[in-house]
Amino acid sequence: AEYMGSGALATPQDFETVAAELEPGLEQTYLGTSPRKLVPGTRFIHTASEFPGWRLIPGHCEMSFLKNPPQRQFFYAHVPNESPGGETPLIDYRQVWRELRPETRQRFLDGKIRYVRHYFDERIGSWNPLHMKSWQAMFNTTDAATAERKAQDAGFTVHWYGSQFGSASGLMKLTHVMETMRHHPETGEEVWFNHMNVLHSRSTELEAAFSAQHLRSWRYVILHYIFRGLIAAQRALYGADALGHHVTRADGEEFPEADVLELWQAVWRNTRVAPHEQYDVVLLDNARVGHARQPYSGRRSILTTWTN
After folding, report:
1. Residue 91 belongs to what H/E stretch?
2. pLDDT confidence of 254, banded at 50, 70, 90?
3. Is the pTM here over 0.90, yes or no?
4. CB 180: neighbour CB atoms within 10 A?
5. CA Rg, the chain, in Å?
6. Which of 15, 80, 208, 298 could disulfide-link 276, Cβ–Cβ 3.0 to 4.6 Å?
7. What angle do helix axes 257-269 and 102-111 make, rounded to 10 degrees?
């Protein structure tokens, strides 16, 4: 990660100009899990997330579930939050992989990772607070057939449920299988590189515990137990594959709980949290360094762009 404190970048347009000079070939296509908006007056600058401030975002490398994820990512503190929290923690996933026990690493390598994600239909809405976003927002279209084609082009298997508007509509379920580890494209080093920390069904529950300690907040202690109970109830009623999002081994079996907890502890040990300063810019090596978001209240505007 490279930190660039620059009070001269007072607008998103300034940020876009500098980012394009440093990393030509900025991307517009976004297939990530957080809702985002393109910033008016720019071609490549997006809000980092449109999730409400109370919702934490676990650590991950940007779009790590794609075959060709971004190699670099910028963050720009246009308006840092004034309240506690709201930081963008950074995680060294190379070191995370190194700190896992050899037998744990081997189980992750052998099992691979199967992603299960559900995207709701904006015309129907969603009761599930852990659904990420609509398929319309995910694929930037209101046409279900176009969304399905884009999903298949990205390597995802598509299933539709609860159709009210034709055969291809309703709740969109995406599944696909990938490796849990990748070699860094420049150094060849092994890196924990996948979206388990975001998409495992226990991610919100576990990250709420981290936020409770970081913010010294009883609210997130309570949310930790609320989300634990919510996920347990959904599992009992509908099964793991019907959750808003989840990951399993390639064969559909669950990862051992001890391995999941060992992973999260390694992530927390290798997480660094620092407050934003206005107009600061951070450039991340997305092939190794992940990011997250701590919850906050009040105003906050962190912007982002990325490149291959």
Report:
1. strand 90-92
2. very high
3. yes
4. 22
5. 19
6. 80
7. 110
